Amino acid sequence: MKKAFFLFAGMATMLASCTSNETEKKAKDTTGMIALDTTFSPTNPVPENSSNCYLYANKKDTASIKLQIKGEELTGTLRYNIFQKDLNNGTIAGEIKGDTIIADYTFDSEGLRSVRQVVFLKKDGKLYEGYGEMKEQSGKFTFVSRAKLKFDDHFTFNPVDCK
Questions:
Q1: How far is the CA of 14 from the CAs of 1, 8, 10, 18, 89, in angstroms?
Q2: What global pTM score does this model have?
Q3: Per-residue b/e over 28-53, b at no fewer than 16 CB within 10 Å?
Q4: pLDDT confidence band for 90 (50 / 70 / 90)
Q5: For residue range 61-84, what is the model confidence (pLDDT) as tens digits?
């Protein structure tokens, strides 16, 4: 019985060493190869650059926006021409987060340069300007709570061709 056990153990050892040698030989044969995965595709495609223009018009009031978008960042111009009020004309710079634009609007009005935060919601191809309570902080007006902003037909910008 002991002879059968030692014979079986010896054969198992020889078999394992032969298998081990074959695995090592295969590993040595493939060390010079480089695997190339050709199925990779990025999950977040690189965003394209674009220019978009929008116009608000209601009776004698108009406003226009021209946006240059590069990925999630944007710059552009914003102009409010509200009847019997001073013209506000300036630039915006900010970012796009999902369907929301958050930017700083730097503009000249009544001979002064001012900065205020603007937020737009993009829905059905239109931009809805958000409004709510603001506070002045370090010379810039910002919304007290963006979560409490209202986006209704107060200022709705429709897409137009850029000129």
A1: 20, 10, 6, 6, 87
A2: 0.68
A3: eeeeeeeeeeeeeeeeeeeeeeeebb
A4: very high
A5: 999 999 999 999 999 999 999 998
| Contact between 133 and 145 (Cβ < 8 Å) | yes
Distance (Å, rounded) from C-alpha 152 to C-alpha 94?
22
Question: In this model, does residue 47 exceed pLDDT 70?
Answer: no
Taking Cα atoms as reference points, which of 85, 64, 84, 67 lies closest to residue 76? 67
Can you give the C-alpha Rg of the chain in angstroms? 33
Domain assignments of the chain as residue spans, ordered by start: 49-160
3-state helix, strand, coil in the chain (%, to 5): 20, 50, 30
Q: Is 98 helix (H, G, I), strand (E, B) or coil?
A: coil
Return the SS3 of 122: strand
Tokens (6 digits) for 97? 């987060």
* Whether 57 contacts 79, CB under 8 Å: no
CB 127 within 8 Å of CB 157: yes
What's CA 78's distance to the chain center, in Å?
Answer: 21
- The CATH classification number of 49-160 equals 2.40.128
Task: Residue count of the chain, please give it.
Answer: 163
